[in-house]
Write a structure and sequence with these properties.
Helix content: over 70%
Radius of gyration: 24 Å
Strand content: under 5%
CATH architecture of the largest domain: Orthogonal Bundle
Largest sheet: none
Number of helices: 14
Length: 334
């Protein structure tokens, strides 16, 4: 397994190189002139040219990329053109919020998706099955930003049950990350803090996790239907095992590998695809920060955010692959 992990990490290098080249070229070829945006519409041509020279924008594209690559290998992704703050510091300060939102969304999606899929498979062609698949179809079809706005109108504006947007300001240290904060609030009996932290993350997590819930539900249903028809399931039932035991311990356990694969892919997608959700709910994560950077042509920030999310996506998929050995000891890595 160690050799397999090392091999996968080595393969990460060409992936990141390809991602960095694509992002670098797109941001430099198709973006507006950063110097003009920074100085504003009243800047003179001389001022713009001077700033372009200072930023190195007049250098050939390959020279700019080489300078960027040398800095990236040293952990330096440059500085924001707007705030002059190091990109790594800016992104890492917002990454905990993105992780919180993605984890909350995938937890909700996994719980509801697997439950709906299992029930639909067990009750195949019943009204319950039809309702579950209609729900899955709606989850796949509804745009996340539209669902987010609907949730805000219903639960925040009309019913006044949850906050409209934002994230509770509890700091960025590990002890202040929402997940740990919720646990700490429960242990200390501080229910007011617990409810406040939980209420801020419910709506964006539900909106972000709706698509993943539908995907997981459909995969679970199709996999369970295939497993339920196997001979060993009929044998388990013939032995007189309780149906609940047959479904959960025999069928679902053997159906978990493709389901875990989908969950892993969805988690990677959520970490990199929370842009619309973070924007709608004013969630201070990497996604909303990247949108702001794109609008301002702050290309060092965009490059850094995309590369970071690419690394996370690959590492998440590696972790999912390693889970296979736990779920099925017959799997060998090479």
């Amino acid at each position: 397994m160690v050799k397999y992990i090392i091999k996968r990490l080595i393969l990460l290098i060409p992936v990141l190189l390809g991602v960095s080249i694509m992002v670098f070229v797109v941001m430099h070829v198709f973006q507006a002139d950063p110097a003009s945006i920074i100085l504003g519409q009243h800047a003179t041509a001389e001022q713009i040219e001077k700033l372009r020279q200072e930023l190195g924008l007049n250098n050939p594209l390959y020279v700019q990329y080489w300078d960027f690559l040398k800095g990236a290998l040293q952990g330096d992704l440059g500085s924001s053109l707007i705030t002059k703050t190091p990109v790594v510091k800016e992104i890492l300060s917002r990454f905990p919020a993105t992780i919180e939102l993605a984890l909350a969304a995938i937890i909700i999606a996994s719980i509801f998706g697997i439950s709906i899929g299992v029930i639909s498979a067990v009750k195949q062609n019943s009204i319950v099955d039809y309702i579950g698949m209609v729900f899955a179809l709606l989850g796949v079809s509804m745009p996340i930003f539209w669902l987010g706005l609907i949730l805000i109108v219903i639960f925040a504006v009309q019913m006044h049950l949850l906050p409209v947007a934002g994230r509770i300001q509890i700091g960025l240290e590990p002890a202040h990350i929402t997940g740990f904060y919720l646990i700490d609030s429960l242990l200390t009996g501080n229910m007011a803090s617990f409810k406040s932290a939980l209420s801020h993350i419910i709506l964006p997590a539900v909106a972000l996790g709706s698509y993943s819930t539908a995907i997981i539900a459909r995969m679970t249903r199709s996999t369970m239907l295939e497993i339920i028809g196997q001979d060993y399931i009929r044998t388990a039932r013939a032995k007189g095992l309780v149906e609940k035991v047959v479904i959960l311990q025999h069928a679902l356990r053997n159906a978990l590998i493709p389901i875990i694969t989908v969950i892993g892919l969805q988690l990677g997608s959520l970490l990199g695809g929370a842009v619309l959700t973070e924007t709608v709910f004013s969630w201070p994560g990497v996604g909303s920060y990247t949108v702001e950077a794109i609008l301002k042509s702050d290309y060092p920030v965009v490059q850094g955010a995309v590369i970071l999310l690419a690394v996370v996506f690959v590492l998440v998929n590696l972790a999912v692959d390693l889970l296979y050995a736990y779920l099925d000891p017959r799997i060998k890595y090479s």
